[in-house]
Specification:
single chain
Length: 163
């Protein structure tokens, strides 16, 4: 005779609800930019009064994205992402390789329920709203029919200072 614990025989509607998860890919140029992006996305996800949304971060440093193996891995990460963050502290323009990869990634996400977020640490950074790279990213997101936003405030610091 087989016995079962009554708590294992629950109706399906009594099973716990697993909350949705937000997959976030963060492309960053410096460790500081990556750290600030993690903190900022965490704050964005915690804005609602409901329970916090579990976040799965996948960070990628711009200059590590150079070979075919990386391309396939990043492509998988971007495919599953609800938010794609491009963060920069530096003044070096985005590389042509990074721009080509991002163009390919966002073309595959065309029309999906995803957002591109641009975070720039200061007015001199390469992703300042007046920069060619910022315009490139904004146009790329809009062409892919994705949401686009960037918390920018003129010449003031574009990311909050963190201890």
């Amino acid at each position: 005779m087989t016995t079962c614990a009554p708590e294992l025989l629950r109706k399906p509607e009594s099973l716990p609800v697993v909350p949705a998860r937000l997959n976030v890919v963060i492309f960053y140029d410096t460790v500081e930019a990556g750290r600030d992006a993690f903190i900022t996305v965490g704050r964005i996800a915690g804005i609602t009064d409901d329970e916090l949304v579990p976040i799965c971060f996948q960070p990628w440093r711009h200059d590590f994205m150079q070979d075919a193996d990386s391309f396939e891995t990043v492509l998988r990460d971007v495919r599953d992402a609800g938010m794609i963050v491009v963060a920069a502290n530096g003044v070096v323009p985005l590389s042509s390789t990074f721009k080509e990869w991002l163009t390919a990634f966002l073309e595959l996400k065309k029309g999906q329920d995803s957002a591109v977020v641009v975070l720039s640490a200061h007015a001199q950074a390469n992703l300042h709203p007046d920069s060619p790279d910022f315009a490139f990213l904004k146009n790329l997101a809009l062409e892919a029919e994705l949401d686009f936003f960037s918390p920018t405030f003129g010449a003031a610091p574009l990311l909050p200072e963190f201890p």
